Structure formats: structure tokens, C-alpha cells
């Protein structure tokens, strides 16, 4: 798409014969919009026209080539300046390239090919840069909080408030929540809404990498560091330089590696395995786990010092069953997405089907909801999703929390909390649903508050 755009080229050349030659060569390509100047001053005065490429004669009558180059770079470092010179002086060429010239070409019988090649390469580079900028913009729009993280429940609103805080600083963030609650989505949203958004977001799933490979995956290795290390490998931390690293399933890391990670986080530097060069790091850490890390610390499976290092700003993502009406909002979001992807008309969910969705506890959370919804859209006879189109993967119903061991009173508090979330903290509605008196409910709420539930 970008390569079709015409390229604006300035030719700055005081030799009339050479200008004639360039006019002929460049005139052959209809995609080139060329303007000719004979002095450095003229060229500089017209930079406002935003040329993509400038071919610059090194010895102009009014200004030395390096000075013109310096001013062009000062105006816009993205302009590709190709220096064309009558003599081939390696030293000058190297100096000019160091000062940011894109290429250095001497005037000889091969000039035509080399110049066209260089212009072509510069053009490809420019279109790649434009395309990358465009994709980056698209990604950050995709991860705007309220566009990507669907929901209006009090629980998710609290999460948004924390995200707003997280993006303003470089503080480490630890995200916990059951599987499929959106931990990776939240991590990406933090990165792509922060100042680091134009730098890499690198995700590493600790549980998915064989134990013996994690260290080299994270910190890299030098060639020959161990059997099988046939080439040097850059680690994920280095890859994320300037950006963010997302350490998913951090609770799965073994104690030995935890010690090494702690050192990296404390020193803010890595050394590749088998190497001795210390590499400074500027990387934001976002860690996630579905485990209760505090419990892991108590059980001696997770280092306490590392736990505190990683904790930073903790974000707890509630399970979908505690997000009330969000179930329906997210379901609708996935349905719209499905319709767009498959060029279909939009779907509706009948009230009975909505009721069915609201009754299910979604042990696999939003990921499970997504697959259930997509299947229901496939099964539906028309653009209405009815109860018979929805099939749940698990036979679990609300009793999922019964697997936990609690006292009767704690169960009751959990049930109340669940309904409060479901009905947006509407006490009257909850009292009605649970068929208890309003004042009893207020009394329980007070007890719950005192007990921190
Ligand atoms: N609030 C939300 N709104 C819309 N989509 C969401 C929301 N939360 C999660 N998703 C989507 O649900 C899917 C699962 O989310 P994600 O992979 O971030 O979960 P996770 O907690 O990292 O899972 P796991 O613990 O299994 O790694 C993704 O497709 C994600 O885009």
C-alpha cells in the first residue's frame, strides 16, 4: 500500500551534465517526483516540501556537503540522504555515513545502477518504517482500555482505575486471576497505553518452556555456552529493551531460577549464559499467575524477596462469574466480532439464552465464554441465539465454589458477594433474589466488611 505512493526526491547537483544524466535516469520511473536544485541553500529552503530522498552532490559551490547533510538531518532525520561524490574517498565516505548519510556513491560508470538501487532500497526502508508506524498505531488503538477490555461491573471498573495508575509510571505490575480472566490482555493494555508502546512487548510463558531451557530463553547465551548452543542467542529480557516483558505463570518458576531472576531485577542488568559482558536493562516487568503467590511463599515454593520485588502494583482480576452483567456484554462483544470476521449480520441473544448464560459459572472464564459464544453462533439457525444453541463444556454449575472448604457462614457471605456483584450492588434486588429481609442483608454486609470479605 505504501510502495504505490509517489516518492519525492530532491536532486542537489551543480554539474549541468550530471543533472541532465540524472533527469534522464530518474525520469524513467513515473513513481518518482523529482525536484532539482543547484545549491545547498536552495535545497534547505525547500525541505518543507518533505522529500523522502535527497541525492546530494558532495562538493556544492555554496556549502560543504557535510554541512548540508547536518542541516537536513536536523530538519528531519528520516530523510534518506544519498551522497554523490566525484572522488572516492573512503575516509570521507565513512565519516558521512557515520553522520547519518544513507549511502555514498562515487561518480563513475556504475553510478546509474548504484544510484537506482540505493533509491529503491531507501524507498523500501521508508515504506517499511511507515508500515511499522501504522501497525503500531493500530495496535495501540486495539489495546485502548475500554475498547479491548469489555465490562462495566464494579470489579472491572476498579481494574480500569488501577490500569490508569499503572500506565503513568514504570512500576512493576503483578496480575493474578483464574485462567482465562484476561491477564495477558491486561498486560498488553498496560504496555500499549504506556510511554513504552513503541518498544517491544515480549511475552514469556514460564510454564510452557522446558525447565532446562528457561534460563537461556530469558537471559540468552553465547555461542558454545553449552552443548547445543551453536549460535549466540539474545534473551527475552534483551529483546524487550525499552519495552515491557510479560512473565506469565511466574509461580511455575523453580527456586534456582527465581534466585537468578531476582538478581537481574535488582541489578537491572543481564549477562548471557557463557558470556561476561554485562548488559544494562531498561525493561518494565509485568508478571502474572493464577496461583496465590502469598500461599506459595508460605509453602516455601516461592522466594519471599522475589515476591516483594515483583508485587509492585497488584491487580487482581475477578473471575467472570463475579462480574455480573459483564457476561452478557462480553458475549455480545464476541458475537459482533464473530459476525464481522465472517461477514455475517449481527446476532442477538434471546432473554432465555441470556438467562442460561448468567446461570453458568464459567470455570474457564472469558476464554471459555468466547468459545461457547462462537459455537452458539455457528449452531444458531438465524441471527438469534437461543438456549438450545448454547452448550457448556463443563457440567459445573454454581456449585463450583463448593469445592472449597469453608464454614456455613463463609459460604453465605460468598453467596451474598456473588449476588451483589451480579446485581451491581443493588441491595434491594439482592435481598429479593435471596428472599431475605433488607435489614438482615445490611447486617450481613456489616459483618462482611468487618471480616474483610
Ligand atoms: N474483559 C474482556 N473483554 C474482552 N475480551 C477479553 C476480556 N478479558 C479477556 N478477554 C479475551 O479472552 C481471552 C483470554 O484472555 P487472556 O489470554 O488474556 O487470559 P489469561 O488470564 O492470560 O489466561 P491464562 O491464565 O490461561 O493465560 C483472550 O482472547 C482475551 O482477548
From TrEMBL:
UniProt source species: Chryseolinea serpens
SMART domains per UniProt: AAA, REC
InterPro entries: AAA+_ATPase, AAA_lid_NorR, CheY-like_superfamily, Homeodomain-like_sf, P-loop_NTPase, Sig_transdc_resp-reg_receiver, Sigma_54_int, Sigma_54_int_dom_ATP-bd_2
Superkingdom, taxonomy of origin: Bacteria
The Sigma-54 factor interaction domain, residue ranges: 149-378
UniProt protein name: DNA-binding transcriptional response regulator, NtrC family, contains REC, AAA-type ATPase, and a Fis-type DNA-binding domains
Location of 4-aspartylphosphate modifications: 57
BP terms from Gene Ontology: phosphorelay signal transduction system; regulation of DNA-templated transcription
GO molecular function, one term: ATP binding
Keyword Heme included in the entry's annotation: no
Amino acid at each position: 500500500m505504501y510502495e504505490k505512493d509517489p516518492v519525492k526526491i530532491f536532486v542537489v547537483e551543480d554539474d549541468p551534465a550530471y543533472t541532465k544524466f540524472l533527469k534522464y535516469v530518474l525520469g524513467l520511473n513515473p513513481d518518482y517526483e523529482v525536484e532539482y536544485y543547484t545549491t545547498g541553500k536552495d535545497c534547505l529552503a525547500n525541505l518543507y516540501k518533505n522529500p523522502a530522498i535527497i541525492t546530494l552532490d558532495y562538493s556544492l559551490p555554496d556549502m560543504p556537503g557535510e554541512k548540508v547533510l547536518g542541516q537536513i538531518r536536523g530538519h528531519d532525520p528520516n530523510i534518506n540522504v544519498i551522497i554523490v561524490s566525484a572522488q572516492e574517498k573512503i575516509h570521507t565516505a565513512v565519516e558521512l555515513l557515520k553522520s547519518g548519510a544513507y549511502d555514498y556513491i562515487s561518480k563513475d560508470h556504475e553510478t546509474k545502477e548504484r544510484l537506482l538501487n540505493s533509491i529503491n532500497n531507501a524507498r523500501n526502508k521508508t515504506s517499511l518504517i511507515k508500515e511499522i508506524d501504522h501497525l503500531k498505531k493500530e495496535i495501540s488503538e486495539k489495546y485502548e482500555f475500554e475498547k479491548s477490555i469489555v465490562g462495566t461491573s464494579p470489579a472491572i471498573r476498579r481494574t480500569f482505575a488501577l490500569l490508569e495508575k499503572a500506565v503513568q509510571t514504570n512500576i512493576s505490575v503483578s496480575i493474578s486471576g483464574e485462567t482465562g480472566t484476561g491477564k495477558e490482555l491486561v498486560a498488553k493494555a498496560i504496555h500499549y497505553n504506556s510511554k513504552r508502546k513503541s518498544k517491544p512487548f515480549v511475552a514469556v510463558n514460564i510454564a510452557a518452556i522446558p525447565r532446562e531451557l528457561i534460563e537461556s530463553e530469558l537471559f540468552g547465551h553465547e555461542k558454545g555456552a553449552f552443548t547445543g548452543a551453536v549460535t549466540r542467542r539474545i534473551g527475552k529480557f534483551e529483546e524487550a529493551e525499552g519495552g515491557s516483558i510479560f512473565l506469565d505463570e511466574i509461580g511455575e518458576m523453580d527456586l534456582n531460577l527465581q534466585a537468578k531472576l531476582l538478581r537481574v531485577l535488582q541489578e537491572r542488568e543481564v549477562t548471557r549464559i557463557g558470556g561476561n559482558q554485562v548488559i544494562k536493562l531498561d525493561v518494565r516487568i509485568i508478571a502474572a499467575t493464577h496461583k496465590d503467590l502469598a500461599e506459595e511463599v508460605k509453602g516455601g515454593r516461592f522466594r519471599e524477596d522475589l515476591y516483594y520485588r515483583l508485587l509492585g502494583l497488584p491487580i487482581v482480576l475477578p473471575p467472570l462469574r463475579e462480574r455480573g452483567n459483564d457476561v452478557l456484554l462480553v458475549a455480545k462483544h464476541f458475537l459482533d466480532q464473530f459476525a464481522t470476521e465472517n461477514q455475517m449480520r449481527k446476532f442477538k441473544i434471546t432473554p432465555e439464552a441470556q438467562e442460561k448464560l448468567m446461570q453458568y459459572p464459567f470455570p474457564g472464564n472469558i476464554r471459555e465464554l468466547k468459545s461457547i459464544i462462537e459455537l452458539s453462533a455457528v449452531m444458531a439457525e438465524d441471527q438469534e441465539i437461543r438456549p438450545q444453541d448454547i452448550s457448556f463444556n463443563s457440567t459445573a454449575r454454581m456449585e463450583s465454589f463448593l469445592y472449597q472448604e469453608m464454614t456455613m457462614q463463609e459460604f453465605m457471605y460468598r453467596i451474598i458477594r456473588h449476588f451483589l456483584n451480579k446485581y451491581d450492588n443493588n441491595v434491594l434486588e439482592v435481598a429479593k433474589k435471596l428472599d431475605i429481609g433488607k435489614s438482615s442483608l445490611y447486617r450481613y454486609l456489616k459483618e462482611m466488611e468487618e471480616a474483610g470479605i
